[in-house]
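Case study.
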Amino acid sequence: MDAKTLLAKLFPAGSDVAFDGLFFHGTGESASGKVAIIGSVDAAPIGVELAFRMAADVLEIVREHPARPILLLVDTQGQRLSRRDELLGINGYMAHLAKCLQLARNRGHKIIGLVYSEAVSGGFLASSLLSDHCYALPESQVRVMNLPAMSRITKIPLERLEELSQSSPVFAPGVANYLKMGAIQALWEGDLAQRLAEALDAPTESDSRRQWGEQRDGRRLARAVSERVRHAEP
Amino acid sequence: MNSYYEASARERLRLLLDPGTFHEFLPPSERVASPHLLQLDTPAAFDDGIIVGKGLLDGRAVLAAAQEGGFMGGAVGEVHGAKLVGLLERARDERPAAVLLLVESGGVRLHEANAGLIGVSEIMRAVLALRSAGVPVIVLDGGQFGCFGGMGIVARLCDAIVMSEEGRLGLSGPEVIETTCGVEEFDSRDRALVWRTVGGKHRYLLGEADALVADDAAAFRQAAIDLLDTKPDLSLEALTAEHERLGGRLERFGACRDALDIWSALGIAAPEKLPLLEADAFRAAVAGKRA
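After joint prediction, the assembly is written out as follows.
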């Protein structure tokens, strides 16, 4: 689904969104009031400029619209791979975006992420994975790396990875795997405006992804291990 | 002098903290290893490549985690990530003087890529929550594998970073960029190019590393002690100031093709000599010139 179609479905009451290259931002009218929108199109590689631009928007929302919910609609093929981005400290620009979203969170902005097309690796880390509630459309694609590349790097035969990926959600691409492991709270189907309204009204708790991963039998250890460290004697 | 670069994660913790004070949570005797590696017939480790625990630094209570580059390049898997998240959450309960992160990681462990990516995301959220609660997180980066991938983002979420010249910090490692974009984009075998692009000296000059120390565990220890009173600040004012700094960097250096161009633009005479200088001489040479 392209971004304009998506916006029309999410905000049948209207939205005011400006597109600028791979980036877009604006406001939508939901059943629960106005929602700030920040997003990207065309599987944008997230480089220093885009991360910086998104952070600028978050800061402006915090300044101008206290407690307004923020909806991240980020379509990304991952971090931009270039020597220049590394030279300028791309990880710091992504961290800055994460800090700005934390500031928003601390000031009562609910942060919702919806993966509507692609979410890959560092681009996913720097966007939708920073939300309080991360959802996805069923046809979206989520991954760290495709299996042939993974096979080359890990030296594990591709056939073995393909076979194991039938039973294990732990390494293979796929939105269903991320749902099972707790990173995606739910898939959005049917009336998207209704799904958004429900998400806006849902209580926001602390990071629950480990619990969901355990309940869905996708990540069996993360919650238990973190709890053991947290509460270990003395 | 004890080389921080050459030391193992356990040795680093021993050298960094007050003697005999480190106590490990979930030590290898508990045999908490990655089930996913075993499934792929890949050797696992009973600490999953990270040591977490508590100790004293200059007499003050700290929690500390150290990633072991010798095991899968310090990469983050499900157990590895969960141990670090658990430590960060424990810090919210215990409120130590600081949490020390002795990073050494290539980022997400591909053998359990999804679990690793989500784990890094949980570490990011836990660091931010801990800082929001007022406990500082101090990063030490001087290991053989550097700090890349999602851990590179984590490092920049923290309150302060101590690096040696040998430390490296970035997102996509040089090998990854070379493999994907070609050797003309980034020649990962050009050590000088790699070090001046992602190494400690450049990070210090950009203002990303707060301290640049010699490759000596005692120097890392002293730098960490000096940073213990750092107060986390995630206020609108602080982030607006950071935003202005990062925007200024894009304006000022966005057209630079090489670290030497940036160092030159910072007003450093003979930037090509910087890689040759020892830590003390380097700091003296760049005093007042950092971005």
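Observations recorded in class. Chain A has a mean pLDDT of 96. Chain A has eleven helices and nine strands. We will return to this complex in the next lecture.
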